[in-house]
Amino acid sequence: MRWFLPVLTAVYLLQSASCRDDSKSSIDDDALDVRCCGVHAGRPHFEELFQVASQAVVNVSASFRLPIPERLLRSRKRKTVAAVIRSLGSGFIVDTKGYVITCYSVVRDAISIEIVLSDSRRLAANLVGFDEIWDLAVLKIPAEHSLRRLVFGDSERTLLGTWVAAIGYPFGLEHTMTVGVLSGYYHDSARNAFDGWLVTDAAVNPGSNGGPLLNLSGEVIGVNYVASGSNEDIGIAVDSKHAVRLIKSVDQGLGMKRIWWLGCWVQIMDAKLAESFGLERVMGVLVNQVRADSPAERAGIRVADVILSVDKKPVHTPQEFIISMGTQAPEDSVGVQVYRSGKIYTLEIKPADFLKSDDVESK
Question: Using alpha carbons only, what angle is made at residue 194 by residues 336 and 182, rounded to the nearest 5 degrees?
């Protein structure tokens, strides 16, 4: 057994050296991709993760016009009809083209957007793409050779209980980092979303929304999100795959996606449900609720319908159904194929704007 200790020590040193080498390459001045090895000897090194990843995290400041009530204008005899207010959020650089990811709610309807880099440089930004479904936005700043960027990781390979870190500018403060573990997945019934949201006990406070949720390799697995009325003891992040999809849409000139409300809720089908409905195999999604006087009810969709396709494209999960509907224009009707009592019907549904629906706002 005398050989055991030397071999074990050699393995330990080899692993530690590997991490040190990776971390050194990640902070090379000539490197644009920000990566790091935040684990040494099996223990997380958050100070190194923060030092490296924070270089690509930015502060997002947006200006808005706030209408002033006429009664105030009369009493003070002012000609101004609007005041300018500012919102604060976070974001992160993802491309040397100057693309910055943030939350759409931070910049929605802004008259101007300013980005503050980690070295305090201030740059004007333009909104070039957004996704209301996942509250994501892509901003564009002047491309510079010195811009650091974060890379995306695969959240689906991140196990529950894995260490994660959230970086941002909460309450307008300088760079801050909170840490925790990936705790689970969040269900947003208002958007009828059964996946795409990550839950962590790393705090995400106002101002941190739009910042990155990172694994210990410095890869972005989520975009931090501050939900109204959310519990302060948990943090929520949008799965990074939706940000990747949005950036690809921007590159293709298709960077705008709105939320269209249907007023029906769906769930995933499994083998037992498929058999009980007389289906030969698992297919489609099951409607489990339909709101009165909603676009879905007006189209004829009923509880216990199995939705098989949208615009002739098969759907297999609730998320596929949401994304398929999210690509439709509200002025146009879309064909939805449903299975009901052994027969297949094609219904025409005309979605409504989620953010302008009185029914949704009153929920």
Answer: 155
